[in-house]
Amino acid sequence: MISTMFREGIKMLYGVVEILRKIIFPFLVAMAIFIASFPILGQQISEESTVVSLDFAIAETLFEVLDSPVAMGGVDNFRSWTGGGSVSANLIDIGNLPYPNKELVSTLNVTAILIPLQFAYLEGSLSRIAPVKEFSPYSESSMTSWEKMLEFTKNIGIYVEREHEANLFISDAEEYFRDVRGAYSFVSSPLLIIQFIDESHVRVYGENSLPGTVIDQLGLHNAWNGSSNRWGVSTISISELFNYEAHLIIVDTSHLTGREAIQRGVMTSNIWSQLPSVQNDNFTLLNANFWVFGALPSALRFAESLVEALEEPTTP
After folding, report:
1. 311 exposure class (CB count in 10 Å sphere: 0-12, 13-18, 19+)
2. How many C-alpha atoms does 310 have within 13 Å on its Cβ side?
3. pLDDT tens profile 163-206
4. Any idea what DSSP says for residue 222?
5. In angstroms, rounded to a whole number, what is the distance separating the alpha carbons of residues 97 and 105?
6. Is the pTM for the entire model greater than 0.85?
7. Is residue 21 within a helix (H) or strand (E), and if so which, with residue range?
8. What's the alpha-carbon Rg for the chain, to the nearest Å?
């Protein structure tokens, strides 16, 4: 009888354990999933994915299509050129270009590192952290500069899985230029876009530069017909400006460190005062709130600055 009672007791105990297993085990699994997904009760969730950019043109495009963090080198230089309004609130500063803080980058949840063509030599070391991809709106191609800029924007959107956002941004840019194209036909002189390099030389922007691309989209004419490099620029002496009958558009870089004295020195010099464009008061100082080697965001800011300058000349 005791043996029978013992066996019955074992059966009851086994039944209780089985019931508890069926009820409690799923509950424990559910609790584990809940705790793991709730950072206060469990470990912190993994940080948001980050895309690293070692190029201003790439970075400003990412600002437009991404809502997640962008890690960028040379932040102070970019801010100096373009102003704080062009920088994403989700920006992470990773140091100077072309030598980013790799230790800092390695602590981020990096999904991709996007670099320009001229930094291809960094691919080997950076690929140990995350996949590396090259992009540039100034690559050699049979496409026009405008087509390359749009293709660049779209390809970045595809690569970071934001093709829809990139296409919307492109559509907005195309609509802007459609609206303003031809509205400035009253500007009869071709435009010569220059930037002071030192007291004897200026940088001139050709048709395949960002400024050159923009004035073409506005239906205006570029006075520079000389050669230019891959970025669309050439350096000439100030005396060569005597050869051009054009409206001088001066990219105002006086806000940059060390540039104000150079710009003031040139514009108060005797040779400057003798230029036909200057004597005819046919020049404009243009607010440089854009990156001169940038992509579509800078192209739009340049266009807006130029349109404003043409409507309300800011000749000093």
Report:
1. exposed
2. 22
3. 999 999 999 999 999 999 988 878 889 999 999 999 999 999 99
4. B
5. 13
6. no
7. helix 2-37
8. 30
* Per-residue model confidence (pLDDT) at position 29: 38
Q: Collapsing DSSP states into helix, strand and coil, what is residue 181?
A: coil
- The full set of domains in the chain, from first to last, is 50-180 (3.40.50.1980), 191-311 (3.40.50.1980)
Contacts of 107 (CB under 8 A, 6+ apart): none
The runs of H, that is alpha helices, within 93-225 are: 102-107, 123-126, 145-159, 163-180, 210-217
Q: For the chain, report the end-to-end CA distance as a whole number of angstroms.
A: 114
- Please give the Cα distance from 280 to 309 (Å, whole number): 17
Q: Which residues of the chain have pLDDT under 50?
A: 1-2, 5-6, 10, 13, 16-17, 19-20, 24-46, 315
Longest Cα separation, the chain: 125
**Do the beta carbons of residue 289 and residue 86 sit within 8 Å?**
yes
Asked if residue 106 lies in contact with residue 125, where contact means CB atoms within 8 angstroms, the answer is no
Pairing of strands 191-196, 201-205: antiparallel
> For residue 191, which of 249, 253, 236 has the smallest C-alpha distance?
249
* pLDDT of 313: 56
**pLDDT of amino acid 21:** 54
